[in-house]
Amino acid sequence: MKTDLFCFNLSFSITMSWLKKPTPIVLTQALIALILTSPPAHPFSPAPNWPVTIGAIHFSSPLAEDLDLDGTLEIAAFSWDDRLHLLSFDGSYLPNGIISTDPVDNSGETSSPSAGDFNGDGYQELVFAADEGKLYILSLTDNADQLKQFDLGATILRSTPALGLDSDGQWVIACGTCGAGVVLIWPKSGRTLTIAPTEEVTSTPALADINRDGELDVVFGTNDGGILAYSIAEPGFPLWKLTTDGPVQSSVALGDIDGDQYLEGFVGSLDGSIYGFDCWGKPLPGWPLNLGGGYADEGIISSPALGDINRDGFLEIIIGTGIFTSTYGRLLVIDRMGNILTQKETDCGIISSPLLVNLDNDIHLEILAISYNGEVLGIEADGSNTEGYPGKISPGPITATPTVNDLDGDGYQELLVASDAGLLMLYNLDAPHQFSAWNTFHGSSDHDGVTLYISAPQEYLTLNIDFDGEAPVLSWNSIIDADEYRIQRSFQDHPQDFSMIATLRGDPLIFRDTELTKSGRYFYKVSAYRDDSELLYSNLCSIDISQSLTQTSHSQITSNYPNPFSTSTTIDYIMGEAQAEQKLELAVFDVTGKKLATLIDDYLQPGSYSIDWDGLTDEGNPVASGVYFLRLSNGIDVSSRTLVVVH
């Protein structure tokens, strides 16, 4: 088998009247010359040797990943004409850099390539699903003859392989199909499993432990009009189904929007509505948000991005509206209660998905989105345009979500854009490569659709909450240069409406809230200030007072110090009298719900205990800098805290 050509005898013909595919555009030499001599205006300029003509690209988002560990990123892009292109950041093709798949009548490639280290050798493998109904895994370090392939049982349209880890720490790949549901693949063992086998799924599944039961869940929209969630531990029936009024081609985004450590989800529909739901499939307050335009005007294909764009301690939902025939579209920033905070109108639909990346020289995130006609929007947290934006990329149309990353290792961001007209374009951005919350389609190169909580990268303000038997007790770490800390509180009936309850100066950084008048869940956040200017804000914490009144006889985490920490932290916890016969587990989880380290898994006598965690996983690997969750459970009580690791 040759690397540059893979031929298969399987062919399918599909017709979907509700999906209008754009017609490929043929570029003339004159048009290409015009593009090369007419670069876009500031703040992005073409990188040397770009653009590269590779063939029309519909929906398939280009991947940028260091596949050979040389310090620069390689590019993988899937063109409509059944070819996967592998290029260097300088625009040159890698050796044997074109992989062809079997053509299918009336169809072409629309899925995006993904990347993951499946064999644990430190190198990222490429994963791509071809429209003929096969999934491939390719490593640049392996012989091409060892390319792995899996039969998905039906054709593929737009659904991209999503990667996650199961409860045993094994990689799982999930990909939707046109009529055979979602296929799960364990690449190490070769095991395959199909869920919802009669559904037509052109959206990309999201993978995470949404309900924190220790098992990986799969959440996806269907063309029959619904959102489904399955646990891979019980794949025979769904955890739940939420019915929509139209097909769901948008892909679900997951994140903890209310600080309860459970994941909520958001997705658009061709019915012109955006759906928000909790981990049990119940609509969130204020959702769905019906935009009122219907299919033609405000039908939604764009997939949402999640991030704390305005730095209020909550995640916002960012999404585009419109389809191919729309005469206008909107880029929307929506808060978790369904209120539109910002909207930018365009003269056509926004079909690709927005990104949350750094576009300027500050430490905060901006929104980047590209309309169907190639208008490039850059939006600040307050809704204003980022300096130099909007811009223009031509020729369009643009249906593929762009990618932003530091491809050449120079410390600055590049913007990678694929055009339906057949060009792969790379632009230099005047922005340092610092951090990104959502830098490509479905969030990251594993396309799992899960957002991480993003704090300022230089320093973390970490809030913890306990209950001393009478009142909530808040504690947090000291911030350099801060001269005061402002504490805000809200209640469960209007959790977004915070009010200032106290201002503290100096040590100790502890506040005991004795002014509560009713039972229920309270939310808290703390901001560090100097000279009346906000420096940092904390994570969001909540506590249910109705449950905490009898908590002294229950098992709980009482403290951990230091937090944030770099090498180790000491965790204090109590084994309560009421559950003396229960087995106790104390474990560390990442924000997707994956268990990283088990610190205690044993039967304990009632009493107070301490244990140190050195920041290592159960496999002995140090965790990266970021936010983690410490959870203590005994089958009855659950106590949790937020940990921050800073290297």
Spell out the blueprint of helices and strands.
Layout: H1 29-37, E1 44-46, E2 52-53, E3 63-65, E4 74-79, E5 83-87, E6 93-100, E7 114-116, E8 125-130, E9 134-138, E10 148-151, E11 162-165, E12 171-176, E13 182-186, E14 191-195, E15 206-208, E16 217-222, E17 226-231, E18 240-243, E19 253-255, E20 264-268, E21 273-277, E22 289-290, H2 294-298, E23 305-307, E24 316-320, E25 329-334, E26 340-346, E27 355-357, E28 366-370, E29 375-379, E30 391-392, E31 403-405, E32 412-418, E33 423-432, E34 463-467, E35 472-476, E36 484-491, E37 499-504, E38 510-512, E39 521-530, E40 533-537, E41 541-544, H3 545-548, E42 556-561, E43 569-575, E44 583-589, E45 595-603, E46 607-613, E47 626-633, E48 638-645
Antiparallel strand pairs: 1-33, 2-33, 3-4, 4-5, 5-6, 7-8, 8-9, 9-10, 11-12, 12-13, 13-14, 15-16, 16-17, 17-18, 19-20, 20-21, 21-22, 23-24, 24-25, 25-26, 27-28, 28-29, 29-30, 31-32, 32-33, 34-35, 35-38, 36-37, 36-39, 39-40, 39-41, 42-43, 43-46, 44-45, 44-47, 47-48
Which key features would you list for this structure?
mainly beta, 647 residues, 5-stranded antiparallel beta sheet, 3% helix
Structural overview:
There is one protein chain. With 647 residues, the chain is an all-beta fold. It has three helices and 48 strands. Strands 1, 2, 31, 32 and 33 form a five-stranded antiparallel β-sheet that branches. Strands 36, 37, 39, 40 and 41 form a five-stranded antiparallel β-sheet that branches. A four-stranded antiparallel β-sheet has the order 3-4-5-6, with no helix packed on it. A hairpin with a 5-residue loop joins strand 44 and strand 45 (595-603). The radius of gyration is 25 Å and the shape is globular.
